[in-house]
Design a protein that fits this description.
The protein has no helices and 11 strands. The protein is mainly β.
């Protein structure tokens, strides 16, 4: 399965962005992770393709929403009320058979939030 992430950019604090991740095939789950300079990779959000169960990191709850479009095999991350600390390279990932083991990774897309 190949994943293609897009949608990053530069936004002011308080602004919004929507990331997309198009998959070449169906998996059990998809998710977003981020990597900020000097920090370890951080889980952001995940969603099951069947049933739509979602998971969020505490740091983004209430601000980010993960969505899926089954017909397009595309996952989205809608990010509102962005903060400078959200600045990172965001990676989409997919789990073949679970929502806690990630078998496929896309290329990153940079999100920069200016203060």
């Amino acid at each position: 399965v190949q994943l293609q992430a897009s949608g990053g950019g530069l936004v002011q604090a308080g602004g919004s962005l929507r990331l997309s991740c198009a998959a070449s095939g169906r998996t059990f789950s998809s998710g977003w992770f981020r990597l900020a300079p000097g920090k370890e990779r951080e889980f952001v959000a995940a969603i099951r393709w069947s049933g739509g169960r979602t998971y969020y990191a505490d740091s983004v709850k209430g601000r980010f929403t993960i969505l899926r479009d089954n017909a397009k095999n595309t996952m989205y991350l809608r990010m509102n009320s962005l903060k400078p600390e959200d600045t990172a390279v965001y990676y989409c990932a997919a789990g073949a058979v679970s929502d806690y083991e990630w078998d496929y990774w896309g290329q990153g897309t940079l999100v920069t939030v200016s203060s």
